[in-house]
Design goal:
single chain; 424 residues; alpha/beta; 6-stranded mixed beta sheet
Length: 424
């Protein structure tokens, strides 16, 4: 009898400990090997940290295969020879891939989908079916600002574009450069236009639908045309020689503390940190490109690639275990310890422990408030190939805003015709 009692007590203790361990976030350990295909240009530092932890905590070994280009993935999927998990784009490019034919639906797995940021989830959802989880952090089109200058001049974060220009006037009159622009790399000139998309959709939520149908144009839609007009309004505040300023020059100028604003991607924080360390990045803040409504300022987001499960995989359960773990706090801590994120991690309730103040204090607030919008390229398949020529053309004095917007509309029409859309 004593042995039986002892056995029962031991069993109860084990069950209690198991319950406690489960409550503390322990994971099922079951050895398995799964395959994963990622792009050749994918930075693996953070992913590798999670893979090592997944092997320790879950017993899952992940074998990595690099794809040379997207055609390799498409060919493998069509032939039924894809890896268990694949990385691929989201948004419009995911729609074009016909995900229902190749990727596993996550709709029956709320332990995964309930964790996804709403904006990201929208970008990996097609016809009501959610397919993927974010590989890494987001990127944001924003205005980076030099906090010591704002403090010195007593400026507040602008909530409208007019308030932003008023700040620029104060900064210029004080003898500082109001807006840094690195125009030698013409792709960077697109950021005002691309990053203003939140404001376009906030003012006219029908714009993308009407644009894809060929009915809304940038030159004639009032909300969309404002993105082009903003280029003309910043011209008085750009530094001398901005047309010849390259990215490296821009980084040096901004790090010097004499430029108040840089309209760019949040990922530039990583470049600043690598070159100048936290002494610079601790002095940089972020705010959204403002529109006209002070009660609705929000930020435009570039979504990362996602991990998708091959629906024909023979290891579906192990893949699901891995995806659930990949977006857990424990795994994200490992990821962000290995790589400093330049944007939100796109997982609800997760607080980044290791990042720049501009991300933790400024950028994350837009996500927490639900004031984000995916960049247009994630929502619409139509994007003109020569956008940088027209945005750069305004800054160099080659085009007016009206001329550039009209030229971009024609550029978009060329792509729409190639996509088989019925545009006038």
């Amino acid at each position: 009898m004593k042995k039986l009692v002892s056995l029962l007590l031991a069993l109860a203790l084990c069950l209690s400990l198991a319950s406690f361990a489960s409550a503390e976030g322990e994971w099922e350990y079951k050895e398995a090997t799964i395959s994963m295909m990622v792009g050749n240009d994918q930075v693996m530092t953070g992913i590798d940290a999670v893979l090592a932890l997944a092997k320790e905590k879950l017993g899952i070994t992940v074998e990595i295969e690099n794809r040379v280009d997207e055609s390799v993935l498409k060919t493998r999927l069509a032939a039924g020879e894809a890896t268990d998990i694949v990385s691929y784009n989201c948004g419009a490019l995911l729609v074009a891939q016909n995900p229902a034919a190749y990727f596993l639906s996550l709709n029956d797995h709320p332990e995964i989908t309930d964790r996804l940021d709403d904006g990201f989830e929208q970008s990996v959802t097609v016809n009501g079916v959610t397919y993927g989880v974010p590989i890494d952090c987001s990127n944001a089109g924003c205005i980076l600002y030099w906090k010591p200058l704002y403090e010195e001049l007593g400026l507040e974060i602008p909530k409208t574009w007019d308030e932003f220009l008023a700040n620029c006037e104060v900064i210029k009159n004080a003898g500082y450069n109001a807006i840094l622009s690195a125009d030698a790399k013409t792709s960077s000139t697109q950021l005002i236009f691309l990053g203003d998309f939140y404001n376009v959709m906030a003012e006219d939520p029908t714009f993308v639908t009407e644009f894809e149908a060929g009915r809304a144009k940038y030159a004639t839609n009032p909300a969309a045309f404002k993105s082009w007009q903003k280029y003309e309004t910043v011209l008085p505040y750009l530094q001398d020689g901005h047309e010849a300023c390259g990215l490296e020059d821009g980084l040096e100028l901004f790090a010097s503390g004499n430029s108040a604003h840089w309209i760019y991607f949040s990922s530039i924080l990583g470049n600043l940190y690598d070159l100048y360390g936290s002494e610079v990045t601790d002095n940089v803040g972020i705010f959204a490109i403002p529109g006209d409504d002070p009660e609705n300022t929000g930020i435009t987001v570039w979504q990362p690639e996602a991990f998708y499960i091959n629906k024909n995989s023979e290891k579906i359960d192990d893949c699901l275990r891995f995806l659930e773990f990949y977006i857990s706090d424990e795994a994200l801590d490992a990821y962000t310890e290995a790589v400093v994120p330049h944007g939100a991690m796109l997982v609800k309730g997760y607080t980044i422990m290791n990042t720049y103040p501009a991300v933790a204090n400024d950028l994350q607030a837009y996500f927490d408030a639900g004031r984000t919008c995916s960049a247009q390229e994630f929502i619409s398949a139509v994007k003109g190939a020569n956008c940088r020529s027209f945005t750069g053309g305004i800054l160099s004095g080659l085009y007016s805003a009206a001329e550039a917007a009209a030229l971009y509309d024609e550029d978009c029409k060329l792509q729409a015709v190639q996509l088989g859309l019925d545009w006038e």
